[in-house]
């Protein structure tokens, strides 16, 4: 496993396992146990996913020492604000059956996320959280949060994959010492990701799949990745990306695939903002 060092010195695996959309509790528990058995030590969940309890049960059943695991969850916008956020974080700890979180993120930059961040800073200082950060914060919101809070976010988890590579956003994160983390590193299969001819031609040189090339590309760019699959064989495949390195020419070719736009949604779209914020009511 390769690691990144966050801006507070905490080490984080560059490759983790995400449980987004695994809503059936027994399936989620099984998937996390499978991922841990494969070798994953970083598990990413969220309050909004509705599966923190399943993740917690899997962690307990795995038998892996707590200090070897890196557990992330996120505060949803319905829990925004100092008091509500603090209460929800304690609830997340109980559901996960943990004494502390390795990483806690603000899930969306809406509602009273300033109050949420103050609660997170307080729990960070109390040792309940090893690192705090954000998710889905575009550069303008990220800079604003940094300028008016004491602790610089350790992570910004944003949509990052070959079609939306976040090059400029990553430059800004690097400027402020914020680690970029990718959600949807496979773009959820959009634009024929797993059959893409460019990735396949590169993968054939290394005897690797499109998925492995896609992950390796992001990892070599310094991006933390959390691919999701419910198939153990795919978990094994996704984990097997540390025995090869893409050449500069390969990296340059993949860089040209960047469409520089979201494959899902934009926070600059008023309709999207109306929809996401309506979920907090």
From TrEMBL:
Residues 23-258 form the NADP-dependent oxidoreductase domain. Gene3D superfamilies: NADP-dependent oxidoreductase domain. Signal peptide: none annotated. Keywords: NADP, Oxidoreductase. The keyword Kinase does not apply. The keyword Oxidoreductase applies. Coiled coil: none annotated. PROSITE patterns: ALDOKETO_REDUCTASE_1, ALDOKETO_REDUCTASE_2, ALDOKETO_REDUCTASE_3. Belongs to the aldo/keto reductase family. This is Aldo/keto reductase. The lineage of its organism: Bacteria, Bacillati, Bacillota, Clostridia, Eubacteriales.
